[in-house]
Automatic annotation (TrEMBL):
Protein name in UniProt: MarR family transcriptional regulator
Region Disordered, residue ranges: 174-206
Transmembrane parts of this sequence: none
Signal peptide: none
Length: 323
C-alpha cells in the first residue's frame, strides 16, 4: 500500500510559498504531476499542455518546472530551449520526462538550467525527482522533520551519495581547498625523480589509448558475465561509460547520450544521473554539434583520456583482451 506523503507549504526565506509550472499534453499525467507537486508543498502556478504554454502570454516561471515531452517535435524542442534559458536565468529547477526515442533531442536542448532528465519514468521516479529538488533548493523555511521524513530523505539521497563517493575514488587527484573530483596538475614548484639539476623536467612520451578493438574486447568480456551471473552483481555504470567513451575516442567517433545510456547497462534515468555527475566532476564533457546546436554529445575530458590510457597500459589491456 502506497503511503500518502503530505507536507506543509514550502516557503523561501521571505515566507513566500514556492511554485511549480506543470506542462504535459496528457491530461491524466498533468493531474498526477500537479497532485505530487502540491503534496510536496508547492503552489501550482501554471498547468497546461506544451502547445498552450508556448502559444500563451509570457508568464512567470515556477521555482520548479515539471515537463513531460514524449515526442521531439520542432515546437516542443523550441519550448524546451526557451524553458532551459529562462530556468537558467531565474534559478528554476527543471524535471523533464521523455522517451528513449526523443532523448538525444531533449538532451541537446538543455544546457543552461538545473535539470533532471527522466526516461520513461514511473510516478515514483517523478516523486523522487521532486524530493531531490527540495534537497537542492536554498533558503527554505521547512517545518521540523519527523522520523518518517528523515528516513525517506535518507533513502532519496543514498543513491546520489554512493555515486559521489565512487566518483571521488576514481579521481586521480583533488584540488586543495576545492571540490572533489578535480584532476590536478603538479604545482610549478614540484620536482620529480626525472627532473635534472637545472630544475627542468625531462619530456616523457604521452601514453595513447590502445586500438578500439582491444577496448571492445574488454567490454564484450564484461558483458559475457551476465550470461552466467546476475547482472546486478557487477553493475558499474561509471566504468562501462568510461570504457565505451575510450573506445569511441580511439575510433574518432562521437557518442550520443542515448548510445551511452545503453552502454552503461543500467536504466536510462540512472545512466543520465551518472553522466551528469561525471560531467560535473570534469571526468566527461558535453560537446555541442557544430552543425546542429540542438544536438550534443558526450566525450572523455582530456585528463580522463590520459588516465584511461595510462591505466590500460599499466594493466596490459592488449594481453588481457587476447586471453
Amino acid at each position: 500500500m502506497q503511503q500518502d506523503f503530505l507536507y506543509e507549504p514550502i516557503c523561501n526565506a521571505a515566507g513566500c510559498q514556492l511554485s511549480v509550472t506543470v506542462l504535459a499534453d496528457r491530461d491524466y499525467l498533468r493531474e498526477e504531476m500537479c497532485a505530487d507537486a502540491s503534496s510536496a508543498g508547492f503552489r501550482v502556478l501554471d498547468s497546461c499542455s506544451l502547445e498552450e504554454y508556448a502559444q500563451g502570454p509570457l508568464t512567470a516561471l515556477g521555482d520548479l518546472v515539471l515537463v513531460d515531452c514524449s515526442e521531439a517535435t520542432a515546437d516542443a524542442m523550441a519550448l524546451l530551449s526557451r524553458l532551459d534559458m529562462r530556468g537558467g536565468k531565474a534559478g528554476a529547477h527543471l524535471v523533464i520526462s521523455t522517451t528513449m526515442g526523443a532523448l538525444d533531442s531533449v538532451f541537446g536542448c538543455l544546457s543552461m538550467s538545473a535539470v533532471q532528465i527522466l526516461v520513461d519514468p514511473a510516478r515514483a521516479e517523478r516523486v523522487i525527482a521532486i524530493g531531490r529538488v527540495l534537497a537542492l533548493l536554498p533558503n527554505l523555511r521547512l517545518r521540523e522533520m519527523g522520523e518518517d521524513d528523515r528516513l525517506m530523505l535518507l533513502r532519496l539521497t543514498e543513491q546520489v551519495g554512493r555515486i559521489a563517493e565512487r566518483l571521488e575514488l576514481m579521481s586521480p587527484g583533488q584540488r586543495a581547498g576545492g571540490g572533489a573530483f578535480r584532476f590536478e596538475s603538479p604545482s610549478p614548484g614540484w620536482r620529480g625523480e626525472e627532473d635534472d639539476h637545472s630544475g627542468s623536467r625531462k619530456r616523457t612520451e604521452r601514453v595513447q589509448l590502445p586500438d578500439s578493438s582491444i577496448i571492445r574486447r574488454l567490454i564484450k568480456a564484461r558483458q559475457l558475465r551476465a550470461q552466467y551471473f546476475d547482472a546486478g552483481l557487477f553493475a558499474d555504470p561509471a566504468w562501462d561509460i568510461l570504457l565505451d567513451l575510450a573506445a569511441a575516442r580511439s575510433e574518432r567517433r562521437r557518442v550520443s547520450v542515448t548510445s551511452l545510456c545503453i552502454a552503461a547497462g543500467v536504466p536510462a534515468t540512472t545512466a543520465l544521473r551518472w553522466i551528469g555527475q561525471m560531467v560535473d566532476a570534469d571526468l566527461l564533457m558535453r560537446v555541442s554539434d557544430p552543425h546542429d546546436r540542438r544536438r550534443a554529445y558526450i566525450a572523455l575530458a582530456d585528463t580522463t583520456a590520459d588516465a584511461m590510457a595510462s591505466y590500460l597500459a599499466e594493466v596490459g589491456a592488449a594481453e588481457l583482451a587476447s586471453v
